[in-house]
Amino acid sequence: GPPLGVGDQIAYAVVGQDFKLISQRLKGSGATMGTFLGEPANLGLLLKSMKEDGVDIPMFGEANLYDPLTLEAGSNPASEVMLRIPHPPFEEAEDYPAIAKFLDLMDARKAEDPEAKTAALGIQSMSSWLLFTEAATACGSTGDKVISRDCIRDEVTKIGEWTGGGLHAPTNPGKFEPAACVIVMTIDGDKFTRKFPEVGSDDATEDGYYCPEENGVVEIDLG
Predict the structure, then answer these.
(1) Of the candidates 100, 93, 94, 85, which has an alpha carbon nearest to the alpha carbon of residue 183?
(2) What is the pTM of this model?
(3) Of 161, 208, 196, 8, residue with least CA distance to 84
(4) Who contacts 176 (Cβ-Cβ below 8 Å, separation ≥6)?
(5) 170 preceded by cis ω (within 30°)?
(6) Residue among 63, 61, 52, 8 at smallest CA distance from 30
(7) How far is 152 from 161, CA to CA, in rounded Å?
Protein backbone atom coordinates (compact mmCIF):
# COMPACT_ATOMS: atom_id res chain seq x y z
CA GLY A 1 0.00 0.00 0.00
CA PRO A 2 0.95 3.67 -0.09
CA PRO A 3 3.26 5.08 2.59
CA LEU A 4 1.57 5.87 5.90
CA GLY A 5 2.11 9.15 7.69
CA VAL A 6 1.85 10.02 11.36
CA GLY A 7 -1.77 9.65 12.43
CA ASP A 8 -2.94 7.85 9.29
CA GLN A 9 -5.63 5.30 10.03
CA ILE A 10 -6.48 1.87 8.68
CA ALA A 11 -10.12 0.99 9.25
CA TYR A 12 -11.20 -2.62 9.74
CA ALA A 13 -14.42 -4.55 10.13
CA VAL A 14 -15.36 -5.28 13.73
CA VAL A 15 -16.51 -8.77 12.72
CA GLY A 16 -15.01 -11.00 10.04
CA GLN A 17 -11.99 -8.86 9.18
CA ASP A 18 -9.18 -10.62 7.34
CA PHE A 19 -6.25 -9.13 9.25
CA LYS A 20 -3.88 -10.59 6.68
CA LEU A 21 -4.88 -7.70 4.44
CA ILE A 22 -3.94 -5.19 7.10
CA SER A 23 -0.61 -6.83 7.96
CA GLN A 24 0.25 -6.90 4.26
CA ARG A 25 -0.55 -3.21 3.97
CA LEU A 26 1.59 -2.46 7.01
CA LYS A 27 4.42 -4.46 5.50
CA GLY A 28 4.50 -2.34 2.39
CA SER A 29 3.66 0.98 4.00
CA GLY A 30 6.94 1.94 5.63
CA ALA A 31 5.23 2.30 9.00
CA THR A 32 7.63 2.19 11.95
CA MET A 33 5.03 1.87 14.75
CA GLY A 34 1.30 1.59 15.22
CA THR A 35 -1.49 2.03 17.74
CA PHE A 36 -4.37 -0.46 17.83
CA LEU A 37 -7.86 0.64 18.84
CA GLY A 38 -10.45 -2.10 19.21
CA GLU A 39 -11.24 -5.41 20.84
CA PRO A 40 -8.52 -7.65 22.34
CA ALA A 41 -9.43 -10.68 20.21
CA ASN A 42 -8.90 -8.58 17.09
CA LEU A 43 -5.52 -7.37 18.32
CA GLY A 44 -4.54 -11.00 18.78
CA LEU A 45 -5.53 -11.80 15.20
CA LEU A 46 -3.60 -8.80 13.88
CA LEU A 47 -0.48 -9.76 15.83
CA LYS A 48 -0.76 -13.30 14.47
CA SER A 49 -0.97 -12.01 10.90
CA MET A 50 1.88 -9.55 11.44
CA LYS A 51 4.09 -12.37 12.72
CA GLU A 52 3.24 -14.56 9.73
CA ASP A 53 4.08 -11.70 7.37
CA GLY A 54 7.28 -10.66 9.13
CA VAL A 55 5.97 -7.25 10.19
CA ASP A 56 8.01 -6.29 13.24
CA ILE A 57 7.01 -2.82 14.40
CA PRO A 58 6.08 -1.72 17.94
CA MET A 59 2.34 -1.78 18.60
CA PHE A 60 0.77 0.34 21.32
CA GLY A 61 -2.64 -0.04 22.96
CA GLU A 62 -4.80 0.84 25.92
CA ALA A 63 -5.97 -1.00 29.03
CA ASN A 64 -8.87 -2.88 27.43
CA LEU A 65 -6.33 -4.90 25.41
CA TYR A 66 -4.74 -6.26 28.59
CA ASP A 67 -7.01 -9.25 28.32
CA PRO A 68 -6.55 -13.03 27.92
CA LEU A 69 -8.37 -12.77 24.59
CA THR A 70 -5.38 -10.90 23.16
CA LEU A 71 -3.15 -13.87 23.95
CA GLU A 72 -5.41 -16.52 22.40
CA ALA A 73 -4.21 -15.67 18.90
CA GLY A 74 -1.52 -13.08 19.63
CA SER A 75 0.89 -14.95 21.89
CA ASN A 76 4.60 -15.00 20.98
CA PRO A 77 4.28 -11.93 18.74
CA ALA A 78 7.10 -10.82 16.48
CA SER A 79 6.38 -7.21 17.41
CA GLU A 80 6.97 -5.45 20.70
CA VAL A 81 3.53 -4.84 22.22
CA MET A 82 3.04 -2.11 24.82
CA LEU A 83 -0.25 -1.70 26.65
CA ARG A 84 -0.86 1.15 29.07
CA ILE A 85 -2.81 0.19 32.19
CA PRO A 86 -3.78 2.33 35.24
CA HIS A 87 -3.77 -0.52 37.75
CA PRO A 88 -1.31 -3.13 39.07
CA PRO A 89 -0.85 -6.18 36.85
CA PHE A 90 -2.67 -9.35 37.85
CA GLU A 91 0.70 -11.09 37.42
CA GLU A 92 2.07 -9.06 40.35
CA ALA A 93 -0.81 -9.71 42.74
CA GLU A 94 1.52 -10.91 45.50
CA ASP A 95 2.88 -7.34 45.70
CA TYR A 96 -0.53 -5.64 45.68
CA PRO A 97 -2.96 -6.84 48.38
CA ALA A 98 -6.02 -5.24 46.77
CA ILE A 99 -5.36 -7.05 43.49
CA ALA A 100 -4.80 -10.32 45.36
CA LYS A 101 -8.18 -9.86 47.05
CA PHE A 102 -9.81 -9.05 43.70
CA LEU A 103 -8.40 -12.27 42.21
CA ASP A 104 -9.69 -14.27 45.18
CA LEU A 105 -13.16 -12.83 44.63
CA MET A 106 -12.98 -13.59 40.92
CA ASP A 107 -11.92 -17.18 41.60
CA ALA A 108 -14.94 -17.57 43.86
CA ARG A 109 -17.14 -16.10 41.14
CA LYS A 110 -15.70 -18.44 38.51
CA ALA A 111 -16.56 -21.41 40.71
CA GLU A 112 -20.20 -20.29 40.44
CA ASP A 113 -20.08 -19.08 36.84
CA PRO A 114 -17.55 -20.73 34.47
CA GLU A 115 -18.20 -17.96 31.92
CA ALA A 116 -16.79 -15.28 34.24
CA LYS A 117 -13.33 -13.98 33.37
CA THR A 118 -10.74 -11.87 35.11
CA ALA A 119 -10.29 -8.58 33.25
CA ALA A 120 -9.54 -4.93 33.91
CA LEU A 121 -13.20 -3.95 33.54
CA GLY A 122 -13.84 -5.91 36.72
CA ILE A 123 -11.41 -3.66 38.57
CA GLN A 124 -13.29 -0.60 37.32
CA SER A 125 -16.62 -2.10 38.35
CA MET A 126 -15.42 -3.00 41.83
CA SER A 127 -13.80 0.39 42.36
CA SER A 128 -17.02 2.12 41.31
CA TRP A 129 -19.05 -0.02 43.69
CA LEU A 130 -16.66 0.67 46.57
CA LEU A 131 -16.83 4.40 45.83
CA PHE A 132 -20.63 4.30 45.89
CA THR A 133 -20.57 2.28 49.11
CA GLU A 134 -18.30 4.77 50.85
CA ALA A 135 -20.41 7.72 49.74
CA ALA A 136 -23.67 5.95 50.64
CA THR A 137 -22.32 5.07 54.09
CA ALA A 138 -21.55 8.74 54.70
CA CYS A 139 -25.03 9.76 53.49
CA GLY A 140 -26.67 7.20 55.76
CA SER A 141 -24.84 8.35 58.85
CA THR A 142 -24.92 12.15 58.58
CA GLY A 143 -27.47 14.93 58.14
CA ASP A 144 -30.95 13.65 57.34
CA LYS A 145 -29.48 10.18 56.78
CA VAL A 146 -31.03 9.87 53.33
CA ILE A 147 -29.13 8.13 50.51
CA SER A 148 -30.07 10.34 47.57
CA ARG A 149 -28.50 11.15 44.21
CA ASP A 150 -27.54 14.63 45.40
CA CYS A 151 -26.00 13.32 48.62
CA ILE A 152 -23.98 10.67 46.79
CA ARG A 153 -22.68 13.32 44.38
CA ASP A 154 -21.72 15.65 47.22
CA GLU A 155 -19.96 12.93 49.19
CA VAL A 156 -17.97 11.79 46.17
CA THR A 157 -16.62 15.31 45.70
CA LYS A 158 -15.47 15.26 49.34
CA ILE A 159 -13.57 11.98 48.92
CA GLY A 160 -11.07 13.53 46.51
CA GLU A 161 -8.23 11.07 45.78
CA TRP A 162 -9.54 7.58 45.13
CA THR A 163 -7.67 4.33 44.46
CA GLY A 164 -10.41 1.83 45.31
CA GLY A 165 -8.35 0.69 48.28
CA GLY A 166 -5.29 0.11 46.09
CA LEU A 167 -7.04 -1.35 43.04
CA HIS A 168 -5.67 1.32 40.72
CA ALA A 169 -3.61 4.51 40.44
CA PRO A 170 -5.03 7.64 42.13
CA THR A 171 -8.04 9.29 40.51
CA ASN A 172 -10.31 12.16 41.55
CA PRO A 173 -13.88 11.22 40.61
CA GLY A 174 -15.27 14.37 42.26
CA LYS A 175 -13.37 16.45 39.70
CA PHE A 176 -13.78 13.89 36.89
CA GLU A 177 -10.01 13.36 36.80
CA PRO A 178 -8.83 9.91 35.65
CA ALA A 179 -5.58 8.27 36.68
CA ALA A 180 -2.49 10.16 35.56
CA CYS A 181 -0.14 7.28 36.40
CA VAL A 182 0.40 4.15 34.32
CA ILE A 183 2.20 0.84 34.06
CA VAL A 184 3.21 -0.40 30.61
CA MET A 185 2.72 -4.11 29.94
CA THR A 186 4.11 -6.20 27.11
CA ILE A 187 3.56 -9.74 25.82
CA ASP A 188 6.34 -12.14 26.75
CA GLY A 189 5.67 -15.45 25.01
CA ASP A 190 2.20 -16.51 26.10
CA LYS A 191 1.81 -14.14 29.05
CA PHE A 192 1.74 -10.47 29.96
CA THR A 193 4.64 -8.95 31.87
CA ARG A 194 5.66 -5.49 33.07
CA LYS A 195 7.70 -3.49 30.57
CA PHE A 196 7.92 -0.11 32.33
CA PRO A 197 8.65 1.30 34.84
CA GLU A 198 10.99 -1.08 36.64
CA VAL A 199 9.87 -1.37 40.24
CA GLY A 200 12.24 0.53 42.50
CA SER A 201 13.71 2.60 39.66
CA ASP A 202 13.81 6.39 39.48
CA ASP A 203 10.91 6.28 37.01
CA ALA A 204 8.61 4.44 39.42
CA THR A 205 6.59 5.71 42.35
CA GLU A 206 6.56 3.79 45.61
CA ASP A 207 3.58 1.85 44.25
CA GLY A 208 5.35 1.01 41.00
CA TYR A 209 3.60 3.46 38.67
CA TYR A 210 5.03 5.94 36.20
CA CYS A 211 3.49 9.38 36.72
CA PRO A 212 4.63 11.61 33.85
CA GLU A 213 4.70 15.34 33.93
CA GLU A 214 2.56 16.97 31.25
CA ASN A 215 4.09 16.17 27.85
CA GLY A 216 6.80 14.15 29.55
CA VAL A 217 9.15 12.05 27.44
CA VAL A 218 10.54 8.68 28.44
CA GLU A 219 12.77 6.20 26.60
CA ILE A 220 11.81 2.52 26.61
CA ASP A 221 14.27 -0.03 25.26
CA LEU A 222 12.54 -2.03 22.50
CA GLY A 223 15.43 -4.42 22.04
Answers:
(1) 85
(2) 0.87
(3) 196
(4) none
(5) no
(6) 8
(7) 16
Distance CA 29, CA 146 (A): 61
Q: Are 33 and 60 in contact (CB under 8 A)?
A: yes
Give the C-alpha separation, 102 to 107, whole Å. 9
Radius of gyration of the chain from its Cα atoms, rounded to whole angstroms: 20
Give the DSSP per-residue string, 128-151. Answer: HHHHHHHHHHHHHHSTT----HHH
Q: What is the pLDDT of residues 73-116, one digit of tens each?
A: 999 999 999 999 999 999 999 999 999 999 999 999 999 999 88
> CA-to-CA distance for 3 and 30, rounded, in angstroms?
6
Which residues make Cβ contacts (< 8 Å) with residue 110, sequence separation at least 6? 116, 117, 118
Nearest to 89 by CA among 196, 220, 185, 203: 185
Greater confidence, 16 or 162?
162
Which residues are paired to 183 by β-bridges?
85
pLDDT above 60 for 126: yes
Judge whether 118 and 90 are in contact, CB under 8 Å. Answer: yes
